[in-house]
Each structure stands twice: as structure tokens, then as C-alpha cells.
Amino acid sequence: MASTDDRWERGDPYERYIGRWSRRLAPQFLSWLDAPPQRRWLDVGCGTGALTSAILDSAQPAAISGVEPSDGFLAAATQRLGARARLHPGTAAQMPLPDAHADVTVSGLVLNFTPNPAAALAEMLRVTAPGGTVAAYVWDYAEGMQLIRRFWDAALALDERASALDEARRFPLCTRDALAALFAAAGLQQVHTAAFEIDTRFEDFDDYWLPFLGGQGPAPAYAMSLDDAARTRLRERLRATLPVQAGGAIALRARAWAVKAQRA
Length: 264
Prior knowledge:
The protein is of the alpha/beta class. Helix content is 41%, strand content 23%.
């Protein structure tokens, strides 16, 4: 079995797997955040640009920057956003930006993948101006992110070693209480949390299954680590257990937890 692989390097496979859903989540998060217009924004771990695009569309930013460690994702975001955002290579825990760079610092679907979330949050505070907002959201891998939860339930039924990659086991941060505790421990004030849900509807089984063959992220990395026979068993287990409707569509739900707070 493959070792844990959280690398996200290629934009197109990511878009088919998760990007198409994260784009629908971002507007809900921004509506809840309700930041005033003409603020300086920073998107930490901007990926292929889903959250940055939503900020440009709805938040009326005075300026917006993004930081992303993956060259492939950074290229995809640059192609999508052009000159509308200033994008920089860098990690959540080490950003090439000055102190108090932004008034609103956000991170979408990233904090759980950072080696040290507390260090990443400390860096987010550093680049946020006093009185500014710091916020983030992550998928609820334990229960609410059904497209991934269904995958791991099927994998674990066939191979107990799959638990080593299961995001529900590996990412205890991805709960309401854990996010609130992380932000409170960092000294942030007025900590609030919320849950957001979207429909993830697949046209047919292939629409669900084929993105797992892109190799981007823990579940696809696991699928592609299997030999052909084991991958076929996993595919057929999923085909038998997913809630397929009469016309072949598969309707699932995806939930994310969000947290926002104010920097002193």
C-alpha cells in the first residue's frame, strides 16, 4: 500500500476530484464571513483559485494576494486569475509577505494538510493587521464529506491497512470543536464556527469513480497504489454500496466546518 501522500500537484485532476465542489462551497463561506468591502485579502493555500475567485466576485476587495506551495496549482491559479490577484509561492507556515499584509486572511480546505496547524495559524496572524479577521474552513472527513467517506468505508471493508490514509482518522482538526480550540489557543478573539453543506451529485458511477484515478490526494493515491485486481474489487464494492438512483445518478452531501475570529 502507498504511504501517506498529501501532495496536490496537478490542477486538472484536482478540479475533477474536489475542485468542482470547493467552488460551490466558497460563496457560502464568504457570505457568512460578511467582511466589509475595500479590504486587503490574503488566501493561504489558494490552490487552483476557487476561493480567490469567489472573493473577487463577491467581496469587493481593495487588493488580494494568494500563497500556494504547489507549482502546478500556482500555474493553474495564475492562468485562471491573471493580473486580478498577486500570487506567491510559499507554505502556510512560511509566507513571503510582510507583517500586517492583509485585513482579512482566509484559508480554504488547507489547514488539516499543514504539518503543524498551530504554526500555520501563527503565521496567518503575523500577516494579518491588528483588528483584522482570520478565518478557515475544512471538510468534515469523519461524517459529512460523503464522497470521500463512502470511498474509505469501502476500502476499509476490503483492506484494513487503508486506515493509515483515511482522512477521518488522520485529521482530528476537522471538527467544529477542534477548529474553535485551535483559534482560541492562538489568542484570537470572538471565535465563531459554522457548518456549510452542498450537494455533490454525480451523473453516473463513472462520474464518481474516475476522479479517484487522478492520483491527487490521499484517497486517489491509495486507489492508484492498488494492483488492477484490488482496484477492481474496490470499484465494484463502491458500485454495490453507493446510493444509485433509478436513472443512474448518485446524490451525496458534503459538509465543511468553518471558523472565524479577530486578531487582537
